[in-house]
Amino acid sequence: MPTAAEIAKLIDHTLLKPEATHADVEALIAEAAELGTYSVCVSPSMLPLTVPDGLKVAVVCGFPSGKHLSSVKAGEAAAAVEAGADEIDMVIDVGAAKEKRFADVESDIAAVRTAAPAPTVLKVIIESAALDDDEIVGVCEAAVRAGADFVKTSTGFHPAGGASVHAVELMRSTVGPDLGVKASGGVRTMEQAEQMIAAGATRLGVSGSRALLSGSTPGAGY
């Protein structure tokens, strides 16, 4: 089993609540540095951030609905990179996935990829709990074709739910070994984190990182 320190290095320490303040984000950064997480993940309006060396900055795009024009997502991603984001977590148009318009999903992702080229890391949030298996496979294949670096289960805001072991396993088997898989939404305990990693996750989106890493009883959250 991975140690708590090893799991911390896979965590995007996350604060995406609409009421989050700059003081809240400053506290998030301090906690991330203390816990040794990989990054902080915040809303684009929180940029720019001052973070210690080694701590990455991830920023959401088209969040949380994904129902933005591709040009708007692309502009949002480009502005975030200009303001210091290392990684972009974009939301697909889940309705397009439900209609099996995977070419449109690919085009949407490709627009953000063009706006935020490497070395910026692009993660694609697919809302796996709202999709059936064929739809999960279709959007993951679209993400591969569009040049994404990760596929990600969930925003943590959808009523259908967050990450599941089944979804992570299916996403991993679809994208193969070369893309990352991020499990997010409802990952609140060490046991859940270990299950997601065993299923193929290489990154975790967690808001209650301290509770997870310490093994204490977590509260509700992302």
From TrEMBL:
<dbReference type="GO" id="GO:0005737">
    <property type="term" value="C:cytoplasm"/>
</dbReference>
<keyword id="KW-0456">Lyase</keyword>
<keyword id="KW-0963">Cytoplasm</keyword>
<dbReference type="InterPro" id="IPR013785">
    <property type="entry name" value="Aldolase_TIM"/>
</dbReference>
<feature type="active site" description="Proton donor/acceptor">
    <location>
        <position position="89"/>
    </location>
</feature>
<dbReference type="InterPro" id="IPR002915">
    <property type="entry name" value="DeoC/FbaB/LacD_aldolase"/>
</dbReference>
<comment type="pathway">
    <text>Carbohydrate degradation; 2-deoxy-D-ribose 1-phosphate degradation; D-glyceraldehyde 3-phosphate and acetaldehyde from 2-deoxy-alpha-D-ribose 1-phosphate: step 2/2.</text>
</comment>
<comment type="similarity">
    <text>Belongs to the DeoC/FbaB aldolase family. DeoC type 1 subfamily.</text>
</comment>
<dbReference type="GO" id="GO:0004139">
    <property type="term" value="F:deoxyribose-phosphate aldolase activity"/>
</dbReference>
<protein>
    <recommendedName>
        <fullName>Deoxyribose-phosphate aldolase</fullName>
        <ecNumber>4.1.2.4</ecNumber>
    </recommendedName>
</protein>
<dbReference type="InterPro" id="IPR011343">
    <property type="entry name" value="DeoC"/>
</dbReference>
<dbReference type="GO" id="GO:0016052">
    <property type="term" value="P:carbohydrate catabolic process"/>
</dbReference>
<dbReference type="GO" id="GO:0006018">
    <property type="term" value="P:2-deoxyribose 1-phosphate catabolic process"/>
</dbReference>
<dbReference type="InterPro" id="IPR028581">
    <property type="entry name" value="DeoC_typeI"/>
</dbReference>
<feature type="active site" description="Proton donor/acceptor">
    <location>
        <position position="182"/>
    </location>
</feature>
<comment type="function">
    <text>Catalyzes a reversible aldol reaction between acetaldehyde and D-glyceraldehyde 3-phosphate to generate 2-deoxy-D-ribose 5-phosphate.</text>
</comment>
<dbReference type="GO" id="GO:0009264">
    <property type="term" value="P:deoxyribonucleotide catabolic process"/>
</dbReference>
<feature type="active site" description="Schiff-base intermediate with acetaldehyde">
    <location>
        <position position="152"/>
    </location>
</feature>
<keyword id="KW-0704">Schiff base</keyword>
<dbReference type="Pfam" id="PF01791">
    <property type="entry name" value="DeoC"/>
</dbReference>
